[in-house]
Amino acid sequence: MSRAAQRRWPRIEELLVGLVLALAAVLLWGPHAPWASLVAAGLGAGFGAWAGARLERARLRTWPVIAGAALFTLLLVPAARLLARVPAIGVNAETLALARDVVVVGVLCVTIALLIALLARRFGLARPLPAVVLVLALTRLLAAHRGGAIHRPLALSDPAWLHGWHPALMLAGLGATAGVIAAVALWRSRRRAWLQLVLLATLAIVLVYFAPGLGLLAFSNTDPLGLSSKTDTDERQLSSGAGGEGQIPSGGRPGDQLGLTEAEGEGGSGGVAPEMVPFRDEYSREGAQSPVAVVVLHDDVEPNGGVFYFRQVAFSSWNGRRLVRSAERGVDEDLFVRFPSVRPIQRPAPPGLGLRQSVPATVSLIQDHAQPPVLADGVEISAAPIADPALFRRSFHSVSEVLIGEPRDLLGRPAGDPSWPWAVREKYLALPPDPRYRELAEEALTMIRASYRDDAWARALAVSLWLEENTRYSLRSRHASAADPTGSFLFGDRIGYCVHLAHASAYLMRALGMPARVAAGYAYIAANRAGGSAILLRSGDAHAWAEVYLQGVGWVPVDPAPPSIDPPMPAPDLDLQRLLGELARPEGERLADDVPAPWRRPSWRQVAGGLLIALAGWALLGHAVKLWRRLAPRLARRDTAARTAYRAALDRLAEAGLTRRYGETRERFAERVGALAPAFTSLTGMHLAACYGRRAASRRGAHALTRLTAGQLDDARRWRRWWGRLAPWSWLQAR
Amino acid sequence: MDGHPLDPISPLHEPVADNQRDRALSHAASVAARIAGHMKEAILGRDDVIELVTIALFAGGHVLLEDYPGSGKTVLARALGQAIESGAEHDRMASFRRIQFTPDLLPSDITGVSVFEPDRGTFQFMPGPVFAHVVLADEINRTSPKVQSALLEAMAERQVTVDNVTHPLDELFLVLATQNPLGLAGTFPLPAPQLDRFLFKIRMEHIDRQPELEVVASFRKRLRPVSSSLPQVHRDEIVAARRALEDHVFVSRTLQECLVDIARAVRDDERVAQGISTRALVQAVPALQCRALLHQRDFIGTEDLEALLVPLFAHRLALAPGVPSAQPVLRESARDPLEHASRSTLRRSG
Q1: B13: which residues sit within 8 A by CB, 6+ positions away?
Q2: Helix (H, G, I), strand (E, B), or coil: what is residue A214?
Q3: Omega of the bond prior to A377 within 30 degrees of 0, cis?
Q4: The predicted structure's pLDDT at residue A546
Q5: Residue B122: is its pLDDT beyond 80?
Q6: Which of A214, B276, B285, B307 could share a disulfide with B263, CB 3.0–4.6 Å?
Q7: Does A640 touch chain B (CB under 8 A)?
């Protein structure tokens, strides 16, 4: 390498490390952060790397720098947060918050990158740190790809799709770049290359262990069975692409699905349950037969009431017009708000396990959904590999505690939960300030015998019975424009669809002092299963129903089914249901009826156990090598006698904490050690005479000197040597 | 020097078949020890300098001493000259000569002149002061480059040409040149190519308190003409010792590689404008061999390289502007090759 090139190299390396850290920072901070803070993260990391390289040359010890950086961060971040609270004239709160974010992110990135760059330059062991950070960032970004969900992350794959490339190409390119960077970093530091290789290999093993199924499946964006209407799919794709997060699947505004806005009568076609939740006058039944999801049950179960409820959302909060999703703590925390990615999502088990049966299932979505439709009451969902990427959008495993038995089993339990805070209870009891609800509820109670009128479940059934007797079901109704659509329905023509009925049930139960809410998702008549394990959810199965909370049981659906004046919904196509069920079974399990074991994040105890085992293995290996190096002089041939004996003596010196410094000659080291172990000086002379000179050493002599060295060391540093004997790595320090 | 801890010639070693080689080496070692002993008698507290001068004598190199006046260099040079006994065939050679360099000195003042002898009617060559075993060239940087060149040419070629007649100098010819670091005014500093002809440049520091006390206490005794208890060393013995050194002190491939790698590392260092020459490496090998022998070894070790690194190479470097000293450059450049050489001893092939 020419001199100029050598001078240029460190600059390139600095630049490389800066780029790597900047990229990692952007990847780790993105993709949901605003642009300004992304830029701050990237620039901050780059500057930090540069400053770290500068600092490395300064005569500063490493630990004070780390302490200083930590102190600086600890002081500056709260200061920035405090500053954002101070009302500044002429600056609105949003700008202030953004500025605070930018400062905090920038400072954090500068500090962390500085430390990484500094450590990477000071310690050979830490050299691959920037590459490791980048790999971790990439892994985090691509973790969603597991299970072949190749259209995630959207930020990465959407541009590829738009250009007509396969996203796998892009990912492969990213991986290759990371590999090249790691290789360059390794090549630049050949001195400890083997150590870094071990480190990288360990990291790779950890990645493979923690993120299985990172492999990419071939994905074609087609619909071979023609199950969904073409326009529907395209519209969804575009909107999900534009949405960034991509989990909101409709033609309308995102707020619509959440039931947060009042936009009614607009939006796309049916298929996804929450879309129908805003009151709507016209609800098209077109495409009601198109499949939206296939559920494969892994256990036979007969649900209480004969209906499987797949709950996606619940509405508990009265906003003055209708019930909407509650954002409050403690309210509706049994719901699954997002899909599982790397780790499973768990919810506390519902009460009343005696009345429930645990049912594992696999849900494969044919159309995108905002929230996972989980069989009520779900306790855990975890990502599942997509059996057929051409057909399914996404799959997940679920474990649900399904309510079984007869409706009368629920009698004799009070409504609500005494452990709820007052605010939560109030949420579940709020209803329009219309006295007619209370009057109607009292009237509904006459539907049942007087002896049952104090029982919560019997009261819920009374409400349901009254609604079934006194209302009519139709998807055409005229209440959407009313100030209180439910009131308009209940005290008007009493013609409405499930959302009206669910709201009415909930209000009436609340009027009777029973905590209730409206749940939305899919309802599936258990009899349609026809003995199979597959459940085909169609767009027409989208449903809303009321739920009442019974103490010791949890949320129980209250779902009045008044006579319909619309043409009846046809039963599902059993052949299609069975076919899709077969297709939805994970690869290799189509014939076997085993429950697929979802990948679970190992518990900390497992991880710790694994680490311990690995450590023990390493320690054993270390001691084995140590033993071999100790015995080698006895077995050595004459020409290697001096070398092995000298090495054995070096090992013992290392045990006693005496190691040769880098660049120190053997003679000088012997001089340094000579005060403690004079025999080592003679041994060094013998060894060097054998190596640099032409004299062969005597095996017995060399061995005797080694033993003498050990003895002298024992006298001088007995306790330090005992500790060194226990350390399996001590021989690594002998050089 | 006896009983050195690194003495490989110990009972633990098995007897070496090559007895003749051992004999030659031990004789060479005793010659070197006697020479050094002579100098040690004459001058106190300068064992390191004495070792380097001895090495230079046996390696056939010349020494540049950088020191202040009155540090004992004349005494040292005279002691060295007196330790050497000329043979009968070399009676024209003085054992020791001193030249005080001044700005008006002429080359012929050093080399000698041809003088017309009226008796015979011919020119007769009158040898100059360079015709000696040991020449002390005092304050070499105070004379003109012309005279400097004359001396340096004599040093390099070991011969003097006057009036188209070449007069060979003695094989032992050793120049101890001095230059004064203080009086830079009115001096002609030696350029780097000329410095390259010196084997060592030794910077003499002030001696320690204890030796200095002894010097003060016994200077009167030392002023008397030295009548050493040690026998003189015959010139031929030194020549034979040189042969023995070259032939029998082993230079391993590892050490050769180490030496070359150090030179290359120094050349690649950005603080160095002109690095170590190949000639310097060639000169270094006998010096290293001699040091190994002085330390009772029959092979060169990394220790020798480390010890001679600065006196061998520091004066040959032309440093980039703003770099104060060559020592750190050399030490840093040597670290990697030395480490490599040390590590290689644990390897199978090493």
Answers
A1: A686, A689, A695, A697, A698, A701
A2: coil
A3: yes
A4: 93
A5: yes
A6: B276
A7: yes
Contact of A186 with A124, CB cutoff 8 Å: no
Residue B294 belongs to some domain of the structure: no
CA A205, A210, A212 angle in degrees (round to 5)? Answer: 90
Burial of A509 from C-beta contacts in 10 A (0-12 / 13-18 / 19+):
buried
Which residues on adjacent β-strands are paired with residue A293? A365, A537
Q: Is residue B334 part of a domain?
A: no
ipTM over 0.90: no
A198 pLDDT more than 80: no
State the DSSP H helix or E strand holding residue A524, giving kind and residue range, or none if neither. strand A516-525
Please tell me the distance from the alpha carbon of residue A607 to that of residue A206, in angstroms, as a whole number: 10
Structure confidence at residue A274 (pLDDT): 45
Identify the burial level of A137 via C-beta atoms within 10 angstroms of its C-beta, where 0-12 means exposed, 13-18 middle and 19 or more buried.
buried
Pairing relation of β-strands A291-297 and A534-538? antiparallel
User: Are A665 and B250 a contacting pair at CB < 8 A?
Assistant: no
- The answer to whether A556 and A350 are in contact (CB under 8 A) is no
Contact A382, A598 (CB under 8 A): yes
Residue B184 included in any domain: yes
What CATH number does the domain containing B57 carry? 3.40.50.300
Tell which residue, A383, A360, A387, has the closest CA to residue A372.
Answer: A383
Collapsing DSSP to helix, strand or coil, A545 comes out as: strand
Per DSSP, the three-state class of B91 is coil
Q: Where do the H-state alpha helices sit in A211-326? A: 230-243, 254-258
Residues of A in Cβ contact (< 8 Å) with B268: 1, 3, 6
pLDDT value at residue A142 = 66
Helix (H, G, I), strand (E, B) or coil at A300: coil
* Chain B residues interacting with chain A (CB cutoff of 8 angstroms): 5-8, 10, 12-14, 16, 250, 252, 254-255, 268, 270, 297-303, 305-306, 334-336, 338-339, 342-346, 348, 350
How many CB atoms within 10 Å of residue A393? 20
Crossing angle of helices A638-655 and A718-726, in 10° steps, is 110
Give residues with Cβ within 8 angstroms of A724, minimum separation 6. Answer: A654, A655, A656, A657, A730
Q: Where are the alpha helices (DSSP H) in A211-322?
A: 230-243, 254-258
What would you measure as the largest C-alpha separation in chain A, in angstroms? 114
The two tokens of residue A24 are 């990692």
Q: What distances in angstroms separate CA A495 from CA A258, A286, A467, A471, one per listed residue?
A: 25, 20, 11, 6
Radius of gyration of chain A (CA): 35
CB pairs under 8 A between A and B: 114
Query: Which tens digit of pLDDT belongs to each residue from A48-104?
Result: 888 888 887 777 788 888 898 888 888 887 887 777 666 666 667 777 778 888 888
Residue from the list A7, A666, A670 with its beta carbon closest to the beta carbon of B345: A666
Average pLDDT, chain A: 77
- State mean pLDDT over B260-270: 92
Give the pLDDT of residue B330.
Answer: 92
pLDDT score, position B6? 45
Confidence of residue A157 (pLDDT cuts 50, 70, 90): low
- Which residues in chain B are closer than 8 Å to A705, comparing Cβ atoms? 12
Domain count for chain B: 1
**Is the pLDDT reported for residue B24 higher than 60?**
yes
- CA nearest to A301, candidates A190, A388, A189, A377: A377
Contact A681 B5 (CB under 8 A): yes
Instruction: Tell me if B172 is assigned to some domain.
Output: yes
Domain limits at B198? 42-231
Alpha-carbon span B328 to B310, nearest angstrom: 10
Residues shown for chain B: 350
Backbone angles phi, psi at B124, to 5 degrees: -115, 130
